[in-house]
Design brief:
By secondary structure, the protein is an alpha/beta fold. It has 3 domains: 282 residues, Alpha/Beta hydrolase fold, catalytic domain (Rossmann fold); 106 residues, 434 Repressor (Amino-terminal Domain); 85 residues, Sandwich (Immunoglobulin-like), CATH 2.60.40. Strands 1, 2, 3, 4, 5, 6, 7, 8, 9, 10 and 11 form an 11-stranded mixed sheet that branches. Strands 15-14-17-18 form a 4-stranded antiparallel sheet, with no helix packed on it. It has a 3-stranded antiparallel sheet with strand order 12-13-16, with no helix packed on it. It has 13 helices and 18 strands. Helix content is 32%, strand content 25%. Strand 17 and strand 18 form a beta hairpin. The radius of gyration is 25 Å and the shape is elongated.
């Protein structure tokens, strides 16, 4: 089932972004807890279910041309009687098909936050999911605008579907997503039109100091196994964004590594494929896993000396540092000190520079002295949830059915819905059930003075529906979730 709003958008920023919403699944709180494994991971169990949708929306690519991007929207089950805050989760380093909009990809955190009552968005980002081209990896501006445009699209969708949102907005992300979350926070605060204000932000284990900490880790003499893919992905991604880092790959990389990198850049290999190929070649040639050994000596010299300062690679790296601004919203930078992929000094340096510049509500915090990059995800995520919950306001709404002497249960439903008339004098009651596209899927006229009426919904697909009741010239609409 696909909801489509047609829109011919020019390349400039537009108010209308939403293209389509495709239902993926409806999970109960128990399913979220089982799928994510909250007990084994020591996480706070989800308290509500979630409706999972693939959202497509209009954005622009790095050349300013119109593109259609995708992402995951996880709507908390509490949306029927509670206004939800919006939360944006930015995912970590991944391939085109291992993205949030494809269940089983990098969207579990967004689903988990939805299970705690947040209207959660997880953009796939440019060059991943449905959007075209190669992913401009670690390019802060596109990480920000791709997410921001999804926020606009999901706000449109919420308005169209009568889903109530509070004015609160929370931003987070892990690993590359920490960088992308920080980029989005900066964009919302300093560059957007003011439609949104960040309530609190929690970038986690992100490479904020691209031109310093991350560059130095790549070119030092120690083994850096993750850098075998991070280095070429960064070069290819920034080439996608700026177009001037090289003319041919062998200007940057030694010939024996070029083919594996080119295959990945042309989408003929996965990130894992490239890593395996480069790792084998590198170890056979050097006996180690030092990514700098893949680089041409001239490039190593530029990175080590920083000369010339206007070298396109140095300019691109500096352009994607994210410590040179001052967050106004409360912000936490969670990290772990044994992180072998993204050195924790990224967070410490960023905290120091931002605090010196006047950031009053920012703090970097370790979530484990012995935890590596993978091990840091759960405690950092748990701390983020606690941090966000400390700012969250709860706004309940009165059910539309309170306007009429009718109650409806259960909701969510699986096999049937029972309509109870609280006033046995209510006459000529009829109901219409429509799907999220507005198509009627069930219509019925109920017997006069029938106190309880059962509606069979067992034949309907899982998802969001709207039940309209009409009686005595009055009308009310209730959102129904069928699981």
């Amino acid at each position: 089932m696909i909801v489509t709003i047609s829109a011919a958008l020019p390349t400039s920023v537009q108010a209308q972004r939403f293209v389509s919403a495709t239902p993926l699944a409806t999970w109960t709180a128990q399913m979220i807890n089982q799928e994510i494994g909250v007990d084994a991971r020591g996480l706070e169990p989800a308290t509500t279910g979630a409706i999972l949708l693939k959202i497509t929306y209009e954005t622009v690519d790095t050349r300013g041309l119109l593109d259609t991007a995708s992402g995951l929207l996880a709507i908390p089950g509490t949306f029927m009687n509670t206004a939800s805050p919006m939360l944006v989760y930015q995912h970590g380093t991944t391939d085109r098909t291992d993205v949030p909009s494809i269940l089983g990809g990098n969207g579990s955190a967004a689903i988990y936050f939805a299970g705690h009552g947040y209207y959660s968005l997880a953009p796939d980002l440019l060059g991943l999911g449905d959007s075209r081209g190669f992913h401009p990896y670690i390019h802060a501006d596109s990480e920000a605008w791709a997410a921001y445009h999804m926020m606009e699209a999901c706000t449109e969708y919420a308005m169209d579907q009568d889903i109530s949102l509070t004015e609160q907005l929370f931003v987070t992300g892990y690993s590359q997503g920490g960088h992308a979350g920080m980029a989005l926070h900066r964009y919302i605060q300093d560059e957007s039109d003011g439609s949104y204000t960040v309530t609190a932000a929690s970038p986690m284990s992100g490479p904020y100091d691209v031109s310093g900490t991350m560059k130095d880790r790549i070119i030092d003499d120690a083994d850096y196994l993750p850098g075998i893919v991070f280095l070429p992905y960064t070069v290819l991604g920034l080439q996608e964004a700026y177009g001037n880092l090289f003319t041919t790959l062998d200007e940057v990389f030694k010939p024996s590594y070029v083919n594996a990198i080119r295959l990945y850049g042309d989408n003929f290999a996965t990130l894992q494929d490239m890593g395996i190929s480069l790792g084998i070649t590198l170890r056979l040639a050097t006996g180690a896993s030092n990514p700098r050994d893949m680089l041409q000596d001239s490039i190593v010299q530029v990175l080590e000396t920083g000369i010339p300062e206007d070298h396109p690679m140095l300019v691109a790296l500096r352009d994607n540092d994210l410590y040179d601004w001052v967050p106004l919203a409360p912000t936490r930078l969670f990290y772990c000190e044994a992180d072998e992929q993204v050195p924790f000094i990224n967070s410490v340096i960023t905290d120091s520079i931002m605090t010196d510049a006047g950031a009053a509500e920012l703090m970097s915090m370790s979530k484990g002295a012995t935890l590596d990059h993978g091990g840091c995800f759960d405690p950092a995520g748990a701390a983020t949830l606690d941090f966000f919950n400390s700012f969250r306001t709860v706004s309940t709404e009165q059910s539309a059915f309170a306007q009429m002497p009718i109650s409806i249960a259960p909701n969510p439903a699986t096999e049937q819905i029972i309509l109870t008339q609280l006033d046995d004098q209510l006459l000529d009651l009829s109901i219409t059930l429509t799907d999220i596209a507005g198509t009627p899927v069930l219509q019925s006229r109920l017997a006069e003075n029938a106190v309880n009426s059962t509606i069979d919904v067992s034949h309907l697909a899982s998802g969001i529906y709207f039940l309209q009741a009409v009686a005595d010239g009055r009308s009310a609409v209730e959102k129904i979730v069928i699981q």
